[in-house]
């Protein structure tokens, strides 16, 4: 599962959440998409038992005879009795579906699915192997942004600087991304869903079988609304609730990570991080004095981001414990590595581009928030629900970036409705830090789906070693039916 990404520690993590306006309906698809839905993919080997291709789609579906872009694909062909294709997306926004499919093709738990389906991963437009890629900052600029303390300056001058910086960020995205504003205006979930239906047709599937994790559940839910009768099965794990938006996410998801930290501290029982107060004593000094981390420094912002990264899965807790123990000894190297992984920075200092894609999609997917009082209210409530964040003013850059984004939103928060949709299976984890449990409960209700409750501390769980969840999910994807389950 790709972890959520973004340009600054807190904003990155907090994906959409707040009840709001009525849906922005998808206009009917243009009648002349035949040249796209009838295209023949050219699959070429790209790994053991793997093939890669590119799908051509319109840049702007309102002008299908105009410019085109491509969507990167990776396929592992079915080994036995083929049902069809199983299309997968890992989330983000900005996550690579091709990388996820390649990883799942090596996962023992996925073997029953690999027998029956062509496993197909896709990189949403602007992401990974798709062309063009959304590009904003250089690697050096990303490093400088993480090292900056501007987000901790809540003074009037500091807020003014933040606004200027985020306005400049949007301008960089326009300048560095091919087709500029035209591409950014068509980079949201609305257009990814249209690409997904073209992909379904090109793969030769009458109906879509889809596996989405985290933000990938938002793609799945939006597809269900737009094309309910084109769905065979939807498995949505780590659900994002389309009825929630940006402001309240600062509250609900911060509380989700506080909950995960509380569970971690019960497990850890270590003097340096055995409680929220102990964690605070450990990281708060980094606000004024970053810690040596090899040739770099561990800032307060990166210490929080690295901790976020370690809380996504209980399996990472031993490594997170070791990282925090190093911080207690004056060494920030391992916790910085957690933050690098979270931001998708490789050891050579190169970023994957997922950060920029994250903002480009989020800023057109949600209603803009420009009221500073509303933002400040959310921050106050967030700190009340997540005291482990105290020590620096929580970053407001995500809201500022979207408030000054160079193109308008193409979607809005709404309660999803999909009449005629076969029942989806929604997997929700009781202590999911990034997409809290309630979001899955609400999405299953709104789509008239089946809820699978996983008791644990983890963000997404299907095909990650839980036999109960895997058995139920595999039976659903192959057979098409599911019963309410608790694992």
Describe, in short, the structure shown.
This protein has 487 residues and is α/β, with parallel strands linked by helices. It has helices at 9-13, 34-37, 97-104, 111-116, 139-147, 156-176, 180-184, 189-202, 215-226, 246-268, 276-283, 300-311, 317-328, 333-343, 354-365, 372-385, 397-403, 437-446, 467-479; strands spanning 44-47, 50-58, 68-76, 84-89, 117-123, 208-213, 231-237, 291-293, 296-298, 425-429, 450-454, 485-486. Strand 11, helix 19 (467-479) and strand 12 form a beta-alpha-beta unit.
The total of helices stands at 19
Shape: globular
- List unreliable stretches of 5+ residues: 1-23
Number of extended strands:
12
Radius of gyration computed on alpha carbons: 21 Å
Strand order of the largest sheet: 1-2-3-5-4-6-7-10-11-12
Structural class assignment: alpha/beta
Percent helix, as a range, is 40-55%
Q: Please state the average pLDDT score.
A: 89
Strand content: 5-15%
Distance between the termini: 19 Å
Biggest pleated-sheet summary? 10 strands, mixed
Structural account:
- The chain has helices at 9-13, 34-37, 97-104, 111-116, 139-147, 156-176, 180-184, 189-202, 215-226, 246-268, 276-283, 300-311, 317-328, 333-343, 354-365, 372-385, 397-403, 437-446, 467-479, and strands at 44-47, 50-58, 68-76, 84-89, 117-123, 208-213, 231-237, 291-293, 296-298, 425-429, 450-454, 485-486.
- By secondary structure, it is α/β, with parallel strands linked by helices.
- It is 42% helix and 14% strand.
- The strands form two sheets. It has a ten-stranded mixed beta sheet with strand order 1-2-3-5-4-6-7-10-11-12, sandwiched between helices.
- It contains 19 helices and twelve strands.
- The protein starts with 8 loop residues before the first helix and ends with a strand.
